[in-house]
């Protein structure tokens, strides 16, 4: 087996379709089928067969896929290590970033980083913070940027803190909230827990949710049009927007803050591009 065989196995396992796999790998279907048969002959097993739901792998085939995934990861890591052994900062930097941070903060940061390090190729994957954690854990990315409190066993650096606000188009009193129309949105469990805890600290009755939307951006637009109030993090707002904002305060008088973290593995700092990005982000945090 070689790296092309590993890619055939992992891609076919993901796609569950011979045609799509051949297209993704830019090879012909007969060539792909031939390599599968050669691998089956080499190990004297059946790797996969065509079922009602597409290509289905046998237990032996799934074991080979796991091996192929591990070998491709090792190959990628070795290449990146070799590319970055020079003192010059270059190579590939893989980032996993919370979707909200990616939209509101990341573009300007990457622009400045690339101005300093033009020879670094940056690959970005976005998603929920839980998904980003998994990306870093599985080494699909080098560095993760997550929002909220999560347990991470390796390196973790606080990038920013922001307040949470009760936001409305017109002025609203906090005691009116249980009787006012609230616009709710899908979010991660850490933010939902913070907001629910704050609510239970201050009110005996539940909020009156009149709208449920999928994204915070949609929620904000509803608020801007006067359709209700929402509880949103400060990353969404700037001074130019005509909105009434009341910061969330805990019962003990402290401000309730949403934290954004950078997470990575300490041993990954051997790669110059990763080391440069970590230092860059820390400098940005510490700059006045």
Model description:
This protein has 288 residues and is of the alpha/beta class. It contains ten helices and eleven strands. The protein has three domains: 72 residues, Winged helix-like DNA-binding domain superfamily/Winged helix DNA-binding domain (Arc Repressor Mutant, subunit A, Orthogonal Bundle); 99 residues, Periplasmic binding protein-like II (D-Maltodextrin-Binding Protein, domain 2, 3-Layer(aba) Sandwich), CATH 3.40.190.10; 96 residues, D-Maltodextrin-Binding Protein, domain 2, CATH 3.40.190. Strands 3, 4, 5, 6, 9, 10 and 11 form a seven-stranded mixed beta sheet that branches. The longest helix is centred in the N-terminal third of the chain and has 25 residues. Pfam families: HTH_1, LysR_substrate.
Features:
Arc Repressor Mutant, subunit A; 288 residues; single chain; D-Maltodextrin-Binding Protein, domain 2; elongated; alpha/beta; 3 domains
CATH topology label of the largest domain: D-Maltodextrin-Binding Protein, domain 2
Biggest sheet descriptor: 7 strands, mixed
Rg, rounded, reads 24 Å
**Uncertain runs:** none
What is the number of beta strands?
11
Give the topology:
Layout: H1 3-15, H2 18-25, H3 29-43, E1 48-51, E2 54-57, H4 59-83, E3 91-98, H5 99-104, H6 106-116, E4 120-127, H7 129-137, E5 143-147, E6 155-168, E7 181-185, H8 189-202, E8 208-213, H9 216-224, E9 230-233, E10 244-247, E11 257-264, H10 272-286
Parallel strand pairs: 3-4, 3-5, 7-8
Antiparallel strand pairs: 1-2, 5-11, 6-9, 6-10, 6-11
Helix pairs in contact: 1-2, 1-4
């Amino acid at each position: 087996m070689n790296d092309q065989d590993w890619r055939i196995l992992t891609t076919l396992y993901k796609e569950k379709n011979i045609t799509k796999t051949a297209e993704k790998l830019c090879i012909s279907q007969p060539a792909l089928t031939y390599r599968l048969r050669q691998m089956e002959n080499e190990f004297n097993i059946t790797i996969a067969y065509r079922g009602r739901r597409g290509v289905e792998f046998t237990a032996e085939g799934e074991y080979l896929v796991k091996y192929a995934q591990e070998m491709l990861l090792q190959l990628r890591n070795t290449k990146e290590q070799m590319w970055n052994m020079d003192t010059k900062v270059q190579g590939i930097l893989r980032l996993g970033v919370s979707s909200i941070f990616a939209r509101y903060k990341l573009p300007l940061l990457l622009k400045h980083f690339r101005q300093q390090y033009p020879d670094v190729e940056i690959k970005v994957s976005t998603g929920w913070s839980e998904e980003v954690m998994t990306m870093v854990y599985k080494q699909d990315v080098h560095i993760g940027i997550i929002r909220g409190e999560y347990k991470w066993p390796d390196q973790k650096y606080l990038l920013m803190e922001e307040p949470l606000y009760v936001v409305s188009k017109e002025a609203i009193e906090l005691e009116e909230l249980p009787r006012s129309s609230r616009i709710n949105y899908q979010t991660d469990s850490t933010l939902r827990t913070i907001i629910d805890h704050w609510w239970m600290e201050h009110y005996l009755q539940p909020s009156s949710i009149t709208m449920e939307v999928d994204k915070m951006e949609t929620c904000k637009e509803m608020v801007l049009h006067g359709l209700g109030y929402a509880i949103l993090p400060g990353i969404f707002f700037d001074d130019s927007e005509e909105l009434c904002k009341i910061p969330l305060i805990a019962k003990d008088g402290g401000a309730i803050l949403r934290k954004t973290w950078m997470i990575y593995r300490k041993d990954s700092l051997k790669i110059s591009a990763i080391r440069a990005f970590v230092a860059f982000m820390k400098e940005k945090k510490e700059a006045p």
